Amino acid sequence: MASDKMIIDESKYEAKVPVRYVFKTEPGLTERTIREISSEKNEPDWMLKRRLKSFEIFKSKPMPTWGPDLSELDFNRITFYIKPEDRKAASWEELPEDIRETFDRLGIPEYERRFLGGSGAMYESEVVYSKLKKELKDMGVIFTDTDTAVKEYPELVKEYFMKLVPPSDNKFAALHGAVWSGGSFIYVPPGVKVPVPLQIYFVMAQEAEGQFEHTIIIAEEGSEVNYIEGCSAPRYSRSSLHSGVVEIFVKKNARVRYTSIQNWSKSIYNLNTKRSLVDENGVVEWISGTMGSKVTMLYPGSILRGRGARAEHLTIGFAGNGQHKEGGSRIIISAPYASAKVIAKSICANGGVMGYRGLVKLNKGAIGSKVNVRCDALLMDPLSKSYTIPYNEIYETREVLASHEAFAGKIDEDHLFYLMTRGLNEEEAKALIVRGFIEPIMKKLPFEYAVELNRLIELEISKLPGGVG
Length: 469
Description:
The protein is an alpha/beta fold.
């Protein structure tokens, strides 16, 4: 007997609230904008100087002409800084009612109560709430927003801020360096294993705004930490820009898992730069699910510089009507017996476009190192497109292995027919096939997030027209 059709409350992912703020800059980007941001944050002079230097680099760099089309992105229409509140709340109850309602609908307080060691909430340009369990504080763990870290841990910030992603890296890294705000700062002392995840959730609630959080994770020797990011924004007619930077430092024998579930609205340009540096026998895991946004360009990078260092990149992407997403990975190995595995799964429907652009670079001295890249695409109709652009640079030939596999296919009509003869309707049968396709990634997610991502995918599948293509 067919199961009842799952009812998915799409309004849960609509974070639209009345426009409110205590300060915001005028649309457009000038030196005055940057000085206003720094002044409003009461930043030290050394950070203002870094912002202004980044702004000069931004002005000198051209827009990227490869990848998705960015020609409709107009910096003059973007508001680069919006401050929603004068102070950061110490509890959910202290948040203003409308902001609290936004996060309540997304289930963030429930996640915190159930399984998080620490949590934060970033609304517009500022972190409005953060909390770390006392037992983790007693272990020496630091989990705060990056603005607070600039003031309370200036020497640590100076040492690590924009070291892996310098402003000269690309135009959007330079933009980020000029106008960054919010994000997470995490420091885990040597030998400390954080037993439960740390999480932050980002919300952009207004149109034509920019969000530029900066996240730094420092895992000292022998430590472990699991960090989760969630992202959401309501639908608006005017486009917004999200351009975050993530820098992860994995010291000897340390381990970091970074998970990101992105459900930006389809009016968002999602253009991020994320990178990790891994020392001897360290392990970094990048796990991401990208459901929303109009345009995404995201290529997390792992630099394996220590003997036996490892990286694992697992991604799921869904592109529907009007969406062009280009993901990928950068693997750079400069040490012996290091290894990396990349699994990229993409689903395209209703004319969506999904691409993979990757770099594998084995430098001299990477003896015995191995890299395996696998890209699988599932096309739900004949209008959708998928492509793969791998690029390999091999400078070490002793005992190295670098492989790249790519597969693109559609839902098999025989499989669909078989499932429908067993009592499923067409929508449920498609959803079941898609679940099997993405199963390797789902196993890596915390249970609550795997359920959430499944719901988002089912929501997209429910919008598809009939037929397989």
